[in-house]
Write a structure and sequence with these properties.
seven-stranded parallel sheet; P-loop_NTPase; nucleic acid binding; Rossmann fold; Nucleotidyltransferase, domain 5; binds magnesium ion; binds guanosine-5'-triphosphate; 18 helices; alpha/beta; globular; 408 residues; 2 domains
């Protein structure tokens, strides 16, 4: 069994630079790494390339020979690769036999990974037929966070790719070092990485754009609802030049592919380089945080909050739903969108929360008050009617309950 990463993302988001940085980092911590270039347009490679698809097919030649433009040419190249999978398999076999960790540098045309069947066949062969446990590592330029509309498009792209590729998936906000030059962000960085309470995005888009019509608001709100309902997309920030940042990313990818368990069949519980790291490494910091959280959960009678599933997933623990008071689930109407904390606070408590930033204490206090509301409706037998009323009202008003908030 081999392990690896499929590095994907829009043009120029930093995939090739990431492959180079990742190869250096992993070699430093003692892994044997091979980078495979799957981009037929990549003519100057900064990394040491073990397999180059350009030896099979090159974009320039295809464009000349068939009078195709760059995008049509690339589609042809990927279909040609699909027809010649045994070429790729032959090249990968010695690397797998040598237990190399494989990093695949991919082209930037996003449609290849969100709707193209040829590329999906290539990926399926690598991961299913040739037994290489892959994680898709999707890079998205962090500057997209400076514009709510572009950020929403990036979320949809990530979600679409995740559903199309069906691989363990890690989304990264790349080029974090350049972010300050785009000015202050409309929200904290946490808002963009955790992808919670997206109702703020619609508010922000409306206030930032004069021509933002009511129709667009409804569409934006529904799209945000779809992303929140799936609860699959979140991001890790990446600064490829910073060791700690790369370390954190590697730790997440290793958990996603199962690489962390490779030592289990031998005597060591973790891959050797993890055990050898001095100090508090990313992976040990994660287990420390997980341990801290587990012990506080053990002392808590019933942990409560809003949207806790995602919090638990972030720290990699599983808590049975019956041992949690989650206001997302309490106010849920089956097969309907999940309700945001902000909407529920405005509708049921007439209070406005998180008008400028995310405050976790304010969130916790609001979840507690909502739980009291829930108990009240359960005891009077009015919960179902209340939920019907909330969903009807929400749909009619574009899920914006700010008009109900009591003025201070
Ligand atoms: N400041 C900064 N620049 C970066 C970073 N990553 C990549 N770049 C620059 O962004 C440009 C594009 O980087 P590439 O690594 O070629 O991006 P790519 O995604 O492989 O591009 P395509 O293969 O054309 O889709 C290059 O000029 C890189 O030097 C980063 O983390 N910080
Ligand atoms: Mg590239």
């Amino acid at each position: 069994m081999s392990f690896g990463q499929l590095v994907i993302g829009p043009p120029g988001c930093g995939k090739t630079t990431y492959c180079n940085g990742m190869q250096h980092y992993l070699e430093l911590i003692g892994r044997k790494v091979s980078v495979i270039n799957l981009d037929p347009a990549n003519d100057s490679l900064p990394y040491e390339c073990a397999v180059d698809v350009r030896d099979l097919v090159s974009l320039e030649e295809v464009m000349q020979r068939f009078s195709l433009g760059p995008n049509g040419g690339l589609m042809y190249c990927m279909e040609y690769l699909e027809q010649n999978l045994d070429w790729l398999q032959e090249k990968l076999q010695p690397l797998q036999a040598g237990s190399h960790y494989l990093i695949f540098d991919c082209p930037g045309q996003v449609e290849l990974f969100s709707m193209h069947t040829g590329m999906k066949t290539v990926v399926d062969s690598i991961s299913n037929s040739w037994h290489i446990r892959l994680a898709a590592v999707q890079l998205v330029d962090a500057h997209l966070c400076s514009d709510a509309g572009k950020y929403l498009s990036a979320l949809l792209l990530c979600l679409g790719t995740m559903l199309h590729l069906e691989l363990p998936h890690i989304n990264l906000l790349s080029k974090m070092d350049l972010l300050p030059q785009y000015g202050p962000l409309p929200f904290n960085l946490d808002f963009f990485t955790e992808v919670q309470d997206l109702s703020y995005l619609a508010d922000h888009m409306e206030s930032a754009s004069e021509g933002f019509s009511k129709r667009f608001r409804g569409l934006t709100t529904d799209l945000c609802g779809v992303i929140e309902d799936f609860a699959l997309v979140h991001f890790l920030p990446l600064a490829i030049e910073e060791k700690q940042s790369v370390e954190r990313v590697v730790s997440e990818i290793d958990k996603a592919t199962g690489y962390v368990f490779t030592g289990l069949s031998q005597s060591a519980p973790y891959p050797p380089e993890m055990l050898n790291q001095g100090g508090r490494s990313g992976s040990s910091a994660v287990s420390q945080a997980t341990g801290d959280c587990k012990s506080s959960l053990a002392q808590t009678e019933l942990p409560g909050g809003h949207g806790l599933k995602k919090d638990f997933r972030m720290i990699n623990i599983i808590v049975p739903p019956e041992q949690v008071l989650d206001t997302v689930e309490l106010f849920d109407f089956k097969r309907q969108r999940k309700l945001s904390l902000r909407f529920l606070a405005a509708y049921l408590l007439q209070s406005s929360i998180q008008s400028a930033t995310h405050d976790s204490i304010e969130d916790a206090r609001t979840a507690l008050l909502l739980h009291q509301e829930y108990e009240k409706h359960v005891s009077t037998g009015t919960l179902r009617d209340k939920l019907l009323e909330i969903y009807r009202w929400g749909k009619q008003h574009g899920w914006d309950a700010s008009s109900l908030v009591k003025k201070p």
